[in-house]
Design brief:
The structure is a single chain. Helix content is about 55%, strand content about 0%. It has 2 helices and no strands. The protein has helices at about 1-10, 10-30. The protein starts with a helix and ends in a 20-residue tail after the last helix.
Length: about 50
């Protein structure tokens, strides 16, 4: 299970950081009440997924 192995290789602290950043982006989307806004999706990829 290559995907599972890749996920297990991510340090817990990095996973938590990415999750917290995702929650912030989600909250911005909810707060915008459906309005479109530029430059909201800036993500730093620490662990690129190779498909």
């Amino acid at each position: 299970m290559a995907v599972t192995d890749q996920l297990k290789a991510i340090p817990v602290s990095e996973f938590k950081h990415c999750y917290e950043e995702w929650k912030k982006r989600l909250q911005r989307c909810v707060a915008s009440e459906g309005s479109y806004f530029e430059d909201w999706f800036k993500v730093t990829f620490y662990y690129p997924i190779i498909l």
